[in-house]
Write a structure and sequence with these properties.
29 helices; 34% helix; 5-stranded mixed beta sheet; alpha+beta; 34 strands
Length: 917
C-alpha cells in the first residue's frame, strides 16, 4: 500500500496538469507563475503583524486557444500569429511535447499570439487548447483528444486552416514527419510560412546514410558505414566490409542504428557480424526503421554537439555556430564490463543520470573548437539549412586509432580528426536542452533565442518582414547580486531566491521544480529572481539530534547560480559546472570564446530592428555557507521560494533557520513541515478525523539495524500478523517520489530488500522480487527507519482502442477490489486552500508508479475525475505540499446514485488541510 510522504515541495508540472484540466480553471504556465508570484508576496507579508491581500503581478504573456485567437484589425500590423505544431508519429513524441511546452512558455507576448496544434501517431491533426500542452505524456493527449480538441478531416484541411489562421508555423515535431520533410512539404504546398529548413533539404539531412554521402560529397571526413535494408541482408557483404575496415568478424566493435530516427532511439553497440545482424533485425522488427546503418565504433573519441543560428537576412545565409558542448560519459564503480562501451542514448539524453557530464565549451584544444565551428557553419550552408539546427559529431585525437581518409578532406588536422555525424533539423527545446544551454552561454535567454529564430524566419517572407521588424524582443533581467553588493535589490524589484537540490533521492526532481519556478517567475517585471543550489552535504549520516542537525545544516554550501549553469539534468552536473566555471584558466577561455561568438552574432543581428540586444550577463557562480546565504537573503530583503524536496527542505530545518533570521519563505511553517515529512507523525495528526471518515492505514516501523539482526521468517510472520495482511508495502519513513517503495509478497522478497539496504544499492533491478516490477530507485544513504503497511491491491484501469463510446476512447475498469489511487492539487494561502479536480494516474507496468512515470513524461497518463458517477470515500494515504498541495490517497469507489462525487472529494481534501492550518 504505497503511502507518499507529506511533501512540502510539489512538482510544478503536476500542478500545471491538474490546473489545466480543471473545468473551471484553464491556466497557462504564466498564470501558474502568477500564482507562484502571489505565494511569494503572501510569504513576504506573512512576516508582518497582519496579512494583506496582494494581487497577482502582471505577466508578459497569456496563453491562447488555437481556435479562439481574435486579433483586432488595427493590431494585425504589430501582432504576429504563430502556430506551434507538436506530436508526430515517431517515438520522440514525448520530447516534442516537452519542446512545445518550452516554446509556449517563452515566446508569448503582446506582440505575438500562439495557437497550438497536435499531430497524433496516425497523422491526424488537431487544434488544441494551449493548456493541453501541459499534459504529461502523448497518452494523455491521445486519450483526451476526442473530447477536448478540434479535429481536422484531413491534413489538407489542416493546412488550409493554418493558411487562414496563422502568419507562420513553428514545427516542433522531432523525428518522422517533423524532420524528414513531411510537415515542411505540406506547408510548402499550401504556401504557409514556417520556421526551419525546407522539405528537400530535410529529406537529405534527416536520413543518416544519405547525409553521410552528402557530407562526403561536400568534402567532409565521414565515419565508414554499411547500409542494411529491410529483409535484404547480405551477410557476406557485411563480412567484407568488416574485413576492409580491419575489424574482427567475431568481435569487431561497431555501432548499429536506424537511419531515420532521432534521440538515439534504437542506437546500440554490437560485436562482430552476427551480433550486428541480430541488432539490425531487432531495429527492423520493432518498426523503428527498415534501413539500418552499421558504423565503426570510434575508440578514444569524444562526442560534441553544436547549435547553429542563422543571423542573415531573407535568403542570404549567415550562420554563426554557438559554443559547442562536449558530451562526456562517466561511469562510477565496476558495473557491467561492457558499460564502458555505452553510448549517449535516449535515457542519458533526457533523464537524470550521473553517467553524463556536459562541458561548454569543450575541453578540446582551442584550434579544434575553432575548426568545429568553421566546419558546422560550412556544413549548414552547403546542405541548404535554414534558421537554426543542431549538428553532432566526434573529435578523434591524434593519439587514437586513425581513420583512413584523404588529407584534403575537411576535419583532418594535426591534432586529430573532426567528424560530423548527425544533423538535427529541429533541435530539442526542453528547458535544459543544448539549444538553451549554448544560447545562454552567449547572452540569450530562452525567450530571446526562440524569438530570434522566429523573427529570422519571417524575413524570408515579404508579407511578414514588416511585422517582424516592428516586433521588439522582450527581455528578462538575470543580473545576480554579488556578496559585496549591499543594496536591497534594484529599485522597483522584489528579490526572490529559488532554492533547490539537497541530499535526498528527490534532489533531481527538486532541480526540475526549481528550474520550472525560476523560469516562470522571470515572466514578472517586478521580480528579480536568482536560482540557488543547495549542495549535498559531505556527511550523509542521519541523526535524530535536532541541535546537531541544525548545526550541520547551517554549514552546508549554497551556490548562487548564473543563468546557464542551472540548465542541467542533475544537481551533480550543476555542482561540477560551478567548480569548472570558477577555475581561472577555464573561466578565461570561456569568456574569450563567448565574446568572439557574440561579436559574430552582432554582425548580423544589428541589422535587424527586432533584435534589442543580449539579455544574459556573463557571470560566475558564487559560493556561500547556508548561514551566509540566509544572512544575505535578509540583507537584500529577499523572499525564499523553497523547492527542496525531502531532507532539510521539508522537515522544518530550513524553515527554522529562515524564521530565526526573519527571512520570509513559501510553504508551511516549521511544525507542519516536521509532521508532514514524517509518515507516522502524519497518521497520528489525522487520527482525530476518524469519526468524519478520514482514515489512516495501520503501519509498523522498524529500524534498519534491527532488520539486519532479526530472523527473516519471524519478522515476516510478526508483520503480516500484526497488520492482518498477506502482502506488505515497505518504504522509507522520511523519503518520497516512490524512492525505496516496494511490494513484498513473501519472506524471500524481504530478504532481497534487506540485502539491498545492507549493500547500499542505488537501485533494485527489475523483477528482483517474486512479483514482476520495474526499476526501484533506493535512497542514498539507506534510511534508518522503514515503514511496513498492508499493500492495497488497486484495480487496473486501461484505455481500450477497440471499444468506442461516442467517438472517444473508452476506459475499462479491470478488477474487483474497487480501490484506486487518486491525486489532487490544492492551491491557496493558509486557511484558504482550494482543491482542483482529482486525477488518477494510470501506470504502464508494476504495482507502484515509478520515478520516471511520475516526473519524466513516460508512458503513464493522467485521468481527471470529472464524470465519475459517485464516490464513497475511504482515504488511506496522502501527500502534502507547500501552498500548492499535491495530495494523493486511496479511494474505494462505490456507486451511490444520490452522491455528488467531485464536491464530496474536494470537501474531503479540504477537511484534511484544515488539520494542518
Amino acid at each position: 500500500m504505497p503511502m507518499a510522504s507529506l511533501a512540502c515541495g510539489s512538482n510544478l508540472s503536476l500542478l500545471l496538469r491538474a490546473a489545466n484540466t480543471s473545468p473551471s480553471l484553464h491556466l497557462s504556465s504564466n498564470l501558474i507563475a502568477g500564482f507562484s508570484h502571489k505565494l511569494l508576496t503572501t510569504a513576504s507579508s506573512s512576516c508582518s503583524s497582519s496579512l494583506k491581500t496582494i494581487g497577482i503581478g502582471v505577466t508578459r504573456a497569456t496563453a491562447h486557444v488555437a481556435n479562439a485567437v481574435l486579433v483586432d484589425e488595427e493590431d494585425k500590423s504589430r501582432v504576429l500569429r504563430v502556430g506551434v505544431i507538436c506530436g508526430g508519429p515517431s517515438a520522440e513524441r514525448g520530447i516534442s511535447l516537452n519542446s512545445a511546452r518550452s516554446v509556449l512558455d517563452h515566446i508569448q507576448g503582446e506582440d505575438l499570439h500562439v495557437s497550438c496544434y497536435y499531430i497524433d501517431s496516425h497523422l491526424n491533426a488537431y487544434a488544441i487548447y494551449s493548456a493541453q500542452v501541459y499534459s504529461n505524456t502523448p497518452s494523455d493527449f491521445d486519450f483526451k483528444l476526442e473530447s477536448l480538441a478540434q479535429g481536422f478531416q484531413s491534413l489538407s484541411e489542416f493546412a488550409e486552416h493554418l493558411a487562414a489562421s496563422v502568419d507562420i508555423v513553428f514545427p516542433v515535431i522531432h523525428g518522422r514527419f517533423g524532420e524528414d520533410g513531411g510537415i515542411q512539404e505540406l506547408l510548402e504546398n499550401y504556401n504557409v510560412p514556417f520556421v526551419g529548413t525546407g522539405s528537400k533539404e530535410c529529406r537529405q539531412a534527416f536520413d543518416k546514410y544519405e547525409a553521410s554521402l552528402g557530407l562526403s560529397k561536400h568534402g567532409f571526413v565521414t565515419i565508414p558505414s554499411f547500409l542494411l535494408q529491410g529483409s535484404d541482408v547480405n551477410e557476406s557483404e557485411l563480412s567484407e566490409w568488416f574485413a576492409s575496415n580491419q575489424l574482427d568478424l567475431n568481435s569487431g566493435k561497431v555501432v548499429v542504428k536506424p537511419t531515420r530516427a532521432g534521440s538515439s532511439i534504437g542506437v546500440t553497440v554490437a560485436y562482430g557480424v552476427t551480433d550486428s545482424l541480430k541488432k539490425a533485425k531487432e531495429i527492423i522488427s520493432q518498426g523503428i526503421d527498415d534501413r539500418v546503418l552499421v558504423e565503426l565504433f570510434l575508440e578514444g573519441g569524444s562526442e560534441f554537439t553544436a547549435i547553429v543560428l542563422d543571423v542573415g537576412h531573407g535568403f542570404d545565409c549567415q550562420p554563426v555556430v554557438l559554443l559547442p558542448t562536449e558530451v562526456e560519459l562517466q561511469f562510477h564503480g565496476s558495473g557491467d564490463v561492457r558499460e564502458k562501451d555505452a553510448i549517449f542514448n535516449y535515457r542519458r539524453k533526457y533523464l537524470p543520470t550521473q553517467q553524463v557530464a556536459y562541458h561548454t565549451p569543450p575541453r578540446f584544444p582551442i584550434d579544434i573548437i575553432k575548426s568545429i565551428r568553421e566546419g558546422a557553419s560550412l556544413l549548414f550552408q552547403r546542405l541548404g539549412l535554414r534558421d537554426f539546427a543542431r549538428i553532432d559529431g566526434w573529435f578523434l585525437p591524434s593519439t587514437a586509432k586513425a581513420l583512413s581518409s584523404s588529407e584534403d578532406k575537411f576535419g583532418m588536422t594535426e591534432l586529430g580528426t573532426i567528424l560530423f555525424t548527425d544533423i538535427n533539423l529541429i533541435s530539442g527545446m526542453e528547458q535544459t536542452s543544448f539549444l538553451f544551454q549554448q544560447a545562454s552561454k552567449v547572452g540569450f535567454s530562452h525567450s530571446n533565442i526562440l524569438r530570434s529564430i522566429i523573427h529570422r524566419a519571417c524575413l524570408r517572407f515579404p508579407e511578414l518582414a514588416t511585422c517582424s521588424s516592428e516586433s521588439g524582443q522582450l527581455h528578462r533581467n538575470s543580473k545576480s547580486l554579488k556578496p559585496n553588493e549591499t543594496s536591497k535589490g534594484r529599485e522597483g524589484f522584489h528579490k526572490v531566491f529559488v532554492i533547490f537540490g539537497g541530499d535526498t533521492s528527490e534532489r533531481q526532481v527538486s532541480l526540475m521544480s526549481g528550474t520550472n519556478v525560476w523560469l516562470n517567475l522571470q515572466a514578472f517585471d517586478d521580480l528579480d529572481v536568482t536560482p540557488c543550489l543547495l549542495a549535498r552535504s559531505i556527511d550523509h549520516s542521519s541523526t535524530t539530534d535536532s541541535d546537531k542537525k541544525d548545526s550541520d545544516a547551517i554549514s552546508r554550501e549554497v551556490w548562487s547560480l548564473p543563468y546557464s549553469l542551472v540548465l542541467r539534468h542533475t544537481t551533480e552536473e550543476v555542482l561540477d559546472a560551478c567548480m569548472e566555471a570558477i577555475e581561472p584558466a577555464r573561466a578565461a577561455l570561456t569568456s574569450h570564446l563567448r565574446n568572439q561568438v557574440m561579436n559574430e552574432l552582432m554582425k548580423g543581428l544589428k541589422k535587424h530592428g527586432w533584435f534589442m540586444g543580449f539579455d544574459i550577463a556573463d557571470e560566475l557562480p558564487v559560493r556561500y555557507s547556508l548561514k551566509e546565504w540566509i544572512k544575505f537573503a535578509k540583507e537584500v530583503e529577499a523572499t525564499v521560494f523553497i523547492t527542496v524536496h525531502g531532507g532539510i527542505g521539508e522537515d522544518g530545518t530550513l524553515q527554522s533557520l529562515l524564521e530565526a533570521e526573519g527571512v520570509p519563505y513559501t510553504g508551511p511553517g516549521v511544525m507542519a513541515s516536521k509532521i508532514c515529512m514524517d509518515k507516522v507523525a502524519t497518521s497520528l495528526a489525522l487520527n482525530h478525523l476518524g469519526d468524519m471518515g478520514v482514515l489512516t492505514i495501520n503501519k509498523d516501523v522498524k529500524r534498519k539495524e534491527d532488520l539486519f539482526k532479526m530472523p527473516i521468517l519471524q519478522t515476516w510472520y510478526d508483520l503480516t500478523s500484526k497488520l492482518q495482511c498477506e502482502t506488505l508495502c515497505i518504504k522509507p519513513a522520511r523519503d518520497g517520489c516512490s524512492t525505496g517503495v516496494a511490494r513484498l509478497c513473501c519472506a524471500e522478497d524481504l530478504v532481497v530488500y534487506i540485502k539491498a539496504l545492507d549493500d547500499c544499492l542505488l537501485r533494485i533491478p527489475p523483477n528482483s522480487f517474486s512479483k514482476a516490477h520495474g526499476m526501484i530507485e533506493m535512497p542514498n544513504p539507506p534510511p534508518e527507519l522503514l515503514i511496513f503497511e498492508p499493500f492495497v491491491e488497486t484495480d487496473e484501469i486501461v484505455v481500450s482502442t477497440k471499444i468506442m463510446m461516442e467517438n472517444s476512447q473508452h476506459l475499462l475498469w479491470k478488477g474487483q477490489s474497487r480501490w484506486v489511487e487518486v491525486t489532487v492539487g490544492v492551491i491557496g494561502t493558509r486557511g484558504l486552500m482550494h482543491s482542483l479536480s482529482p486525477s488518477i494516474t494510470v501506470k504502464e507496468t508494476g504495482d507502484i508508479l515509478s520515478l520516471e512515470e511520475k516526473f519524466q513524461g513516460m508512458s503513464s497518463f493522467t485521468i481527471i475525475l470529472l464524470n465519475v458517477d459517485c464516490l464513497g470515500i475511504s482515504p488511506l494515504n496522502f501527500s502534502y505540499c507547500l501552498f500548492c498541495f499535491n495530495l494523493s490517497c486511496f479511494l474505494q469507489v462505490i456507486m451511490k446514485d444520490m452522491m455528488a462525487p467531485l464536491e464530496i472529494l474536494i470537501n474531503f481534501f479540504e477537511l484534511i488541510l484544515e488539520s494542518f492550518n
